[in-house]
Design goal:
- The chain is an alpha+beta fold and 189 residues long.
- The protein has one domain: CAP (Pathogenesis-related Protein p14a), CATH 3.40.33.10.
- The chain has 6 helices and 4 strands.
- A 4-stranded mixed beta sheet has the order 1-3-4-2, with helices on both faces.
- A hairpin with a 2-residue loop joins β3 and β4.
- α2 packs parallel to α5.
- It is globular and about 40 Å long.
- Keywords: Signal.
- This is SCP-like extracellular.
- InterPro entries: Allrgn_V5/Tpx1_CS (IPR018244), CAP_dom (IPR014044), CAP_sf (IPR035940), CRISP-related (IPR001283).
Length: 189
């Protein structure tokens, strides 16, 4: 076989291998029978819309402007979610790393919690909320008992990006908000 025929045969074989790999990847299914997420772990439009709707439902009930989804915040949230899963604990990212964004965190055993429960745990803090200037915003006397909720409803916040990460046996939800809420001396709305 001359060099050009050999090169053509190699390229044809490589093309077949790539096509086979693509069809195997396209047919991959999770244990639930649903298609696996793409490797980049970007939230699907459906997932992002659902999380956004959960946030905006609460904001609309208070007459607040709707949040918009921000894919850059989502990517940052995904990165931090993997770090948290690796550490096996919740810890807010350093303010300098977050570039003026707020952050809500949630962690639980992998595969045991629907995203609605995760987000609604932030919103359920409203039972302790007392309308006042931050940090005097909680009926319990501890602002941290309502800080997830107040970040969701903070009037000046305009954008959100979240990621649910499944890693190291954990499901981690990280939501980033721009601009950040929970500003000292100000009301949520």
């Amino acid at each position: 076989m001359d060099g050009s025929k050999l090169l053509a045969a190699v390229l044809a074989s490589l093309g077949m291998l790539c096509a086979t790999g693509a069809s195997v990847a396209a047919s991959a299914r999770s244990a639930s029978g649903l298609p696996q997420a793409r490797y980049d772990n970007r939230m699907s439009d459906r997932q992002a819309s659902h999380i956004l709707a959960l946030h905006n439902r609460e904001r609309e009930a208070l007459g607040l402007p709707k949040l918009k989804w921000n894919r850059a915040l989502e990517r940052e949230a995904k990165h931090w979610g993997h770090e948290l899963a690796r550490m096996g604990r919740l810890q807010h990212a350093d303010n300098a790393v977050r570039n003026g964004t707020g952050e809500n965190l949630w962690m639980g055993t992998a595969g045991q919690w629907p995203v609605e429960t995760m987000v609604n745990m932030f919103i359920d803090e409203k039972r302790h909320y007392r309308h006042g200037n931050f940090p005097e915003i909680s009926r319990t006397g501890k602002w941290a008992d309502v800080a997830h909720y107040t970040q969701v409803i903070w009037r000046d916040t305009q954008e959100v990006g979240c990621s649910v990460v499944n890693d190291h046996g954990w499901d981690v939800l990280v939501c980033r908000y721009w601009p950040a809420g929970n500003v000292w001396g100000r009301k949520a709305y």
